[in-house]
Design a protein that fits this description.
Layout: H1 3-7, E1 9-10, H2 12-18, H3 26-35, E2 42-43, E3 52-55, H4 56-66
Antiparallel strand pairs: 1-3, 2-3
Protein name: Helix-turn-helix domain-containing protein
């Protein structure tokens, strides 16, 4: 993946549109943030008003971490 693409910022809505099998809606993505089980994200402010963004590279890295190799225990 080119460096520019990996650094591309996506909104939660865009993440759900591009990865619909994994993230059904922005609320499911927000729950993963809250639980600490989802991809790394950027928050523009610590308050509730802070906007959330995801780097495409962070999503791809998270997907790599979730990948189970054949024959490995699930």
């Amino acid at each position: 993946m080119p460096k520019e693409a990996a650094a591309e910022l996506l909104t939660p809505k865009q993440v759900c549109e591009e990865y619909p099998a994994l993230f059904i809606n922005p609320q499911s993505l927000a729950e993963r943030r809250w639980r600490g089980t989802g991809p790394a994200y950027i928050k523009t402010s610590p308050s509730r008003a802070g906007r959330v963004y995801y780097r495409r590279g962070a999503i791809e890295a998270w997907l790599d971490d979730q990948t189970v190799l054949g024959g490995a225990a699930a």
